[in-house]
Amino acid sequence: xxxxxxxxxxxxxxxxxxxxxxxxxxxxxxxxxxxxxxxxxxxxxxxxxxxxxxxxxxxxxxxxxxxxxxxxxxxxxxxxxxxxxxxxxxxxxxxxxxxxxxxxxxxxxxxxxxxxxxxxxxxxxxxxxxxxxxxxxxxxxxxxxxxxxxxxxxxxxxxxxxxxxxxxxxxxxxxxxxxxxxxxxxxxxxxxxxxxxxxxxxxxxxxxxxxxxxxxxxxxxxxxxxxxxxxxxxxxxxxxxxxxxxxxxxxxxxxxx
Length: 257
Prior knowledge:
Elements: E1 8-12, H1 17-28, E2 32-37, H2 40-52, E3 56-61, H3 67-81, E4 86-89, H4 104-132, E5 136-141, H5 154-173, E6 179-186, H6 192-199, H7 204-213, H8 223-234, E7 245-248
Parallel strand pairs: 1-2, 1-4, 2-3, 4-5, 5-6, 6-7
Helix pairs in contact: 1-2, 1-8, 3-4, 4-5
């Protein structure tokens, strides 16, 4: 499969879950990837896994809350692969709580990872793409909470809504440069993060059943299903798709009750 043949990419938050699946999917489709993650051991293992499968991926340790780390990852992509064609802003953390239960520290941490990290990634990717005179694609990872609300997730919902708004503004501002910007908005996924959520409940099995029962298909997504949507938006198949969102939620938010 070669839907991303010849393309280069930086993907953030790649040590597990959706980020891992994006790296594997991109390299299977022919992209050369710089995988950025805080976790050195797990992040390097994902890049090695992609390489062992015949792809090209290099690991860059870094944190999206540090602007210099993002700049370094983009510079490495240009130095090793000759260009930056695609950026995927995937790094994220979960923050639970109603508004009055959300501390300033928690709010600022979510803001730093989700909004500021995405802002820096987009800013420096756009700068690199424009300087090279090349078209490019940015895929930001939002959520179904970019569109709707849910209980006990006030700060997280605000961040995911903000990512969608930023995506639209970037798409408008840089269309003339050939730069597309879109948002993938998944529902719940089978990731370590969701397993950690279940483990923190009084009854993990009951919590899983309640979550899955809300979906029309009575299951949540596998991250590879969401990674496939990211591949599409990064590819030339989506050459006239920009400023929009691709919801991957099994029909959840199509429901009225």
